[in-house]
Design goal:
It is a single chain. With 251 residues, this protein is of the alpha/beta class. It is 43% helix and 14% strand. It is built from eight helices and seven strands; from the N terminus they run βαβαβαβαβαβαααβ. The protein has a seven-stranded parallel beta sheet with strand order 3-2-1-4-5-6-7, with helices on both faces. Strand 5, helix 5 and strand 6 form a beta-alpha-beta unit. The longest helix has 29 residues.
Length: 251
């Protein structure tokens, strides 16, 4: 029987790459996001390649909408073998005392509360079945703050702690928990951070060969396909010329 993977934030970046990579790995896909047009096009593309796909359109910040979406799953789709908590974002690059509280709320509600909502909805069934895998997309930013990253770094530090705590809580079961911590990944991440300022976003990746969404998806699939007795607890993935969240050597 094919395994089912649910991916939040699957319409762009790392989430989209994970959808394609797990489809290639033989998984059935439950892809979620807010962009219904992109969800529909991805479904058509992946199904034409032979994958079974269900789309769920909701915002992880809306706990009731998330619950309704999960409850709408029927039959074998109710069994979620892999949950990839990918939905997340950074907004702004300001000093903490000059930051926009609305940006703070959006990051906290998405990166932390949204992840917790999905975990609460899906992990109890994994524990009851004594199998399953949660893959959280964290960040190198969760290891140490960098200049002007304050609240975003705090949310990704929370992802690390929440992942560690969940791993402890499910240790009596066969459920596995993985925290992936990417460094500089070229997606629409910076465009979102800078509220659509493409010129500023492009500068983030100048002078270095950054990671791609596919690079992170490769690691996610490896972790999911590891033998049952192997739990890939945490992986830090950096571009070759990136030493840490704040050290980037540009050529």
């Amino acid at each position: 029987m094919k395994k089912n993977v649910l991916i939040t934030g699957a319409t762009s970046g790392i989430g989209e790459a994970c959808a394609r990579k797990f489809a290639q790995g033989g998984y059935n896909l439950i892809i979620t996001g807010r962009n219904t047009t992109k969800l529909a096009s991805m479904k058509a593309e992946l199904e034409s390649a032979g994958s079974a796909v269900i789309t769920l359109a909701f915002d992880v910040r809306d706990a009731k909408a998330a619950e309704a979406a999960i409850q709408s799953l029927e039959g074998d789709w109710k069994r979620i073998d892999v949950l990839i908590n990918n939905a997340g974002l950074a907004l702004g690059l300001d000093k903490e005392y000059e930051g926009d509280p609305e940006d703070w709320n959006t990051m906290i509600d998405t990166n932390i509360k949204g992840l917790l909502t999905m975990t609460r909805l899906i992990v109890p069934d994994m524990v009851a079945r004594n199998e399953g895998h949660v893959i959280n997309i964290g960040s190198v930013a969760g290891d140490a703050a960098y200049a002007n990253g304050n609240v975003y770094c705090a949310t990704k530090a929370a992802v690390k702690t929440i992942s560690d705590g969940l791993r402890i809580d499910v240790a009596e079961s066969a459920v596995r928990v993985t925290n992936l911590k990417p460094g500089l990944v070229e997606t629409n991440f910076s465009k979102v951070r800078f509220h659509g300022d493409e010129a500023r976003a492009e500068k983030v990746y100048q002078g270095i060969d950054p990671l791609t969404g596919d690079d992170i998806a490769d690691v996610a699939l490896y972790a999911a396909q590891a033998p049952k007795h192997v739990q890939i607890a945490e992986v830090l993935i950096l571009a070759t010329h990136q030493g840490s969240g704040s050290v980037i050597v540009r050529k």
